[in-house]
Design brief:
The chain contains 9 helices and 7 strands; from the N terminus they run H-H-H-H-E-H-E-H-E-E-H-E-H-H-E-E. The protein is an alpha/beta fold. The protein has a 7-stranded mixed sheet. Helix 6 links the parallel strand 2 and strand 3.
Length: 222
């Protein structure tokens, strides 16, 4: 008897994640085909858009350390490396399989996109760095079934004082979770500066998901 073909993983599967273990299992299966079946087929322009926003806050003539939160297969890192080739980029993700794909990504000069990659569950205590990075960027991790408002504030511990944080948050996720309270509390406690916001498209026109929006949150660590 012929083996049944595996069901193609979809955005709905990602949105239905509940636990870190759910995330590990889903992305272990999705990693080999993610770039093709999700990024390309869905016209997922979010990584390029977030990288462009980050670049506006990053001088082009110097080298800076960047941490890519929830880097997945490396889509954001690739875009940052194109726009700011002097950047020294590291990535972190819960899925070792996704990190293995990210490790294969190459810059235009033939060097690796990522200087280092870290496997970590960002809903728990972070051990891989503290008070180190100049910039933090994320696209796609602060979304339904993934990281929430308080993880956004917790994760900036990996950044040095004065670091710039550029994070995309799915608009529906923003509304369903109390990001405003978490950010307001962090501002009041002088953990972060008062943020700037920018609304962007997650998918390009022609995608079946076109119209989904994200709120880009931009602030500095105090």
């Amino acid at each position: 008897m012929a083996e049944k073909s595996k069901k193609q993983i979809t955005l709905a599967d990602a949105y239905n994640l509940v636990t870190p273990e759910d995330s590990r299992e889903l992305y272990a299966q999705w990693a080999p085909t993610y770039d093709k079946t999700f990024i390309e087929e869905n016209k997922y322009v979010y990584p390029a858009t977030i990288a462009a926003v980050l670049a506006k806050h990053m001088p082009a003539d110097r080298s800076f350390s960047v941490i890519d939160i929830g880097c997945g297969t490396g889509a954001v890192g690739e875009e940052v490396a194109k726009i700011r080739p002097k950047s020294v980029i590291e990535g972190v993700d819960i899925s070792p399989e996704m990190l293995s794909v990210a490790a294969t990504k190459i810059r235009l000069d033939g060097t690796k996109v990522y200087e280092d990659l870290h496997e970590a569950d960002l809903t728990s205590t972070i051990y891989f760095a503290s008070n180190y990075f100049d910039f933090l960027v994320s696209a796609g991790s602060f979304t339904i079934g993934h990281l929430g408002a308080f993880e956004l504030i917790d994760v900036i511990q990996v950044c040095r004082s004065g670091a710039t944080i550029v994070v995309g948050v799915n608009q529906q996720h923003w509304e369903d979770n109390d990001f405003v309270s978490a950010i307001t509390e962090a501002v009041d406690k002088k953990v972060i500066t008062r943020p700037q916001y920018q609304e962007v498209d997650i998918y390009a026109e022609g995608s079946k998901h076109f119209g989904d929006k994200a709120r880009v949150v931009i602030f500095k660590k105090v």
